[in-house]
Write a structure and sequence with these properties.
- The structure is a single chain.
- The strands form 4 sheets. A 6-stranded mixed sheet has the order 3-2-1-6-8-7, with helices on both faces.
- The chain has 18 helices and 12 strands.
- The protein is extended and about 100 Å long.
- The chain is α/β, with parallel strands linked by helices and about 550 residues long.
């Protein structure tokens, strides 16, 4: 008779091997005991129970017994419930067909869920939330600090917000020129002289070395970097002097466009990393209250919402990527069109270019940004330029207007009211000290940029355009489905046209490229076309029968 095949391997072993294993186990246990003895680990003491001398011993023991019984009963009940649930699941698996009597309750439940989902309001537009938070900050503040990027101060001013501050009552508006170490000193002085004629202006440079719970956190390194905060004493003295004249505690709101350094200024004043800061735009999404001292409280706010009717350059510089999705090539081309070409060539060490597409190609080759096949990554180069221009590393500057004119939302009375309560003489001295302390770049090494002027913003929620819903309800009625399909087809066609226009370079740029570049691109296109039939041939055709 044939021996049946064993399912499991035999556990037999030689005596020598078995004794060796037992010896190793004993040694291991001995080692553990030694270590426990060194650590001073003691064994758990046994529960001695209730001593005989204790009063009401019998009652205590009875209570303990009853508690034990209740726990056992509860465990048993839970076990029974689990078994019942398991049986129900098994029955459902064996009989998946639903009886007709149970169909109606299921339908009713489905309709109720549908009604609940319809009643639930959708997620609110983040832009509307930003407007609400900004209004709260303006209402709660006695002094409002409008933070400006020193590289383009006029482009960081929002007339709509300034007008709202003027209309909201007896509130003071102060301008803060942040990132002042990224512009030449001559240009900074010119801007200071221009802005202080209208409103009190403070020269500031936020610190890059911040403390967080005893640890020092260094931010991303930038050229002309200084770990020491500049202008902090001047700003604190200005606010402290106003508080003394005001006679009670003041609330200071910090507002501005994205990436101008609102949260960095608060962290520098507090000398601690309290507000979240980073390279990406629009990190602050809610108002945050920070007490500077017993008399002064600072309120951080989300950024202004940029109006879509601004110029493409303004939208590229002032729109956070998390809120408005920008096309990198278009955004970077708009920025490049307003910069001095010769200085851009020297700064990025690329050859002279005729158009933005040629510049991005050269920049991609220079920085080693390549796609598959070795072609230069134009989109990656555009993103690089955009991130450097909007970040805090690239030094560029704008010239102030030749003639000074009062802003349309201000008049002489408002200007005098805004300056009342501040010690302007002391502020001028502090600004002069700050400018001397700043290590600014030379005029020749910075890029000259043409400012687009004041940036229009949105402060009212009703002015924000409503977004189209992602999913539309289909009405299966006479001709209803046909109309919806047609509409969807038109939208798809429009999206396809947009994508084709984005991917293909413009006609003017193509004509402007040198002949060698055109020949290379044509050869690449022909190579791609040659590859298409090979890929199609490999596919299996299910419509034909193969014998």
């Amino acid at each position: 008779m044939k021996r049946p095949k064993l399912k499991k391997a035999s556990k037999r072993m030689t005596c020598h091997k078995r004794y060796k294993i037992q010896k190793k186990v004993r040694e291991h246990h001995r080692k553990l005991r030694k270590e426990a003895k060194k650590r001073g680990h003691k064994k758990r003491r046994k529960d001695l129970g209730v001593p005989n001398s204790a009063p009401f011993k019998e009652a205590l023991l009875r209570e303990a017994e009853l508690r034990k019984q209740r726990l056992e009963e509860l465990k048993l009940q839970q076990k029974l419930d689990r078994h019942k649930e398991q049986e129900k699941k098994r029955k459902l698996k064996t009989n998946p067909v639903v009886e007709p009597s149970n169909v109606e309750p299921v339908k009713e439940e489905f309709e109720q869920c549908k009604a609940k989902n319809k009643a639930k309001p959708g997620k609110q537009n983040p832009k509307k939330l930003y407007c609400q938070e900004l209004k709260k900050v303006i209402e709660a503040s006695d002094v409002v600090l409008e933070v400006l990027d020193a590289r383009d101060p006029l482009g960081c001013r929002c007339p709509q917000v300034e007008e709202a501050i003027v209309l909201s009552g007896q509130k003071k508006l102060v301008l803060v020129l942040n990132k002042s170490d990224l512009v030449p000193k001559e240009n900074l002085e010119n801007w200071l002289n221009y802005l202080k004629r209208e409103l009190p202006t403070v020269v500031f440079r936020a610190s890059t070395s911040l403390r967080n719970k005893g640890k020092t956190i260094k931010m991303r390194k930038a050229p002309f970097k200084s770990e020491v905060c500049i202008g902090k004493d001047g700003l604190r003295k200005l606010l402290g002097g106003f508080q003394e004249t005001y006679g009670k505690t003041i609330h200071v709101g910090v507002i501005g466009f994205p990436n101008v350094g609102k949260s960095s200024i608060i962290n520098s004043l507090k000398q601690e990393r309290i507000c979240n800061v980073g390279v990406s735009m629009g990190l602050t999404r809610n108002m945050q209250v920070v007490s500077l001292d017993k008399q002064i409280t600072i309120i951080d706010s989300p950024s202004f919402i940029v109006s879509p009717f601004n110029s493409p350059t303004t939208l590229a510089l002032r729109s956070p990527a998390s809120i408005e999705v920008l096309k990198p090539v278009e955004a970077a081309s708009a920025i490049l069109s307003q910069a001095d070409t010769r200085q851009v060539v020297l700064k990025f060490t690329v050859p002279d270019f005729k158009n933005s597409l040629e510049f991005f190609t050269s920049l991609a080759q220079r920085r080693g940004l390549h796609q598959k096949g070795g072609t230069p990554n134009v989109e990656g180069a555009a993103k690089l330029l955009w991130s450097e221009w909007t970040g805090g590393s690239l030094g560029y500057y704008c010239h102030p207007p030749t003639s000074w004119t009062l802003s349309p939302h201000f008049n002489e009375n408002i200007v005098t009211d805004m300056k009342w309560g501040f010690n302007l003489e002391e502020l001028e001295k502090n600004n002069a000290r700050s400018i001397q302390a700043i290590r600014s770049p030379r005029l020749a090494s910075s890029i000259l940029f043409q400012s687009s002027g004041l940036t229009n913003g949105i402060i009212e929620e009703k002015d924000i355009p409503e977004e189209l819903p992602k999913q539309r309800e289909r009405k299966w009625q006479d001709g209803g489905d046909y109309e919806i399909i047609n509409n969807e087809q038109e939208s798809v066609d429009e999206e396809a046209d947009e994508e084709s226009s984005d991917t293909s370079p413009p006609k003017e740029a193509w004509e402007a490229l040198p002949e060698e570049a055109q020949a290379d691109e044509q050869s690449e296109q022909s190579h791609i076309l040659d590859r298409v039939p090979e890929e199609e041939d490999d596919a299996y055709n299910f419509s034909t029968d193969y014998v």
